[in-house]
Amino acid sequence: MSAHDDGADGTDLLASVDQRLRAAGLRNSRSRQVVVDVLVGAGRPLSLPEILEADVELAQSSAYRNLGELVEAGVARRVESADDHARFELHESLTGHHHHLVCTTCGRVEDFDVPDDFEAGIDVMVHAAESQGFRIDAHRFDLLGRCARCSSASGD
Amino acid sequence: MSAHDDGADGTDLLASVDQRLRAAGLRNSRSRQVVVDVLVGAGRPLSLPEILEADVELAQSSAYRNLGELVEAGVARRVESADDHARFELHESLTGHHHHLVCTTCGRVEDFDVPDDFEAGIDVMVHAAESQGFRIDAHRFDLLGRCARCSSASGD
DNA sequence: CTTTCTGCAAACGATTTGCAGCAGC
DNA sequence: GCTGCTGCAAATCGTTTGCAGAAAG
Fold it and tell me: Which residues in A lie closer than 8 A to residue B112 (C-beta atoms)?
């Protein structure tokens, strides 16, 4: 049931990441390290531009390429926001299952935890869904609105 | 509670659509009519290619342009799927609040209803979210998996 | 008639990819 | 030294937009 059975301080998290990269046959290159570090330190899904800001040396194509490989290796996950930029975060198996708050104005995404009984309710619905012919293996639940900055910026 | 207080046979639905188009200052052009008709008859969110299939006369740019206007006029809504094609469906105020089953293989999206108490649970979480600085005004909940066709096509 | 639409083709912008040289191990 | 990785620039591809003529009211 636990999402990550290592310690919770991040040290083991990095070890897990390293292990998965190794398992996927990926080297410890500088670019890859930067991308991973940024994702680990972010605490929320980041867009490509945000990731690039973290390191001037990082080329856009390398960032995209690395993100693809990280997703492939089960280290990262792509998150849909509300603007035309995808966001990326560490895989749930590393950070724990959670959901997102999505700003429909600027696209910012923040993590959000929901009560266990809510998750339980989802499990129940999966059965109903499968009677519709779908084979369900994941879900996404997002609350959409205005983030703090965007709420104060314009009206209201 | 009710999503549409007209009859449920679709006649009033079309009337509502017409009214909103009128209110938005949009004319009854052939292209627009086609797009609306297709969405009404679909019963699930459609991609641009799917909409185009419905009428050979319909130009891609006109379809996109009309969809944008329909969304603007509160007649349609854009739905995020799992592939790189956006989907479009009638606005919830016309069809009723619902959620989606999303095929991660082909991108197909189908409507899915959830129990009222599940929706109630969502309302509760909105408060928690607002304490995180977000001002919430909508949510999206999707079950992700393989649609009937894609499940049978490849393994299991 | 006047204003909104339409189709076409060009423009956009996020993401992907080919390639030649550099860097892990 | 291999092999994978990087930056660059060109290519993709869904979606948007400019424009001149056609259609709605």
Answer: 125, 128-129, 132
The DSSP-derived string for chain A is --S--S-SSSHHHHHHHHHHHHHTT----HHHHHHHHHHHHHSS-EEHHHHHHT-TT--HHHHHHHHHHHHHTTSEEEE--SSSS-EEEE-HHHH-S-EEEEETTT--EEEE---HHHHHHHHHHHHHHHTTT-EEEEEEEEEEEE-HHHHHHS--
Q: Are strands A109-112 and A135-146 parallel, antiparallel or unpaired?
A: unpaired
Q: Distance between CA A44 and CA A15 in Å, rounded?
A: 20
Domain locations in chain A as residue ranges: 13-153
Sequence-ordered list of residues with C-beta below 8 angstroms from that of A129, at least 6 positions apart, any chain: A136, B101, B112, B143, B145
Are the C-beta atoms of B88 and B67 separated by less than 8 Å? yes
The second-level CATH assignment, the architecture, of A13-153 is Orthogonal Bundle (1.10)
Residues B64, B80: Cα–Cα separation, whole Å:
15
State pLDDT tens for residues B65-122. Answer: 999 999 999 999 999 999 999 999 999 999 999 999 999 999 999 999 999 999 999 9
Q: Contact B115/A135, CB-based, under 8 Å?
A: no
- Nearest CB neighbour to A135, from listed B115, B133, B151: B151
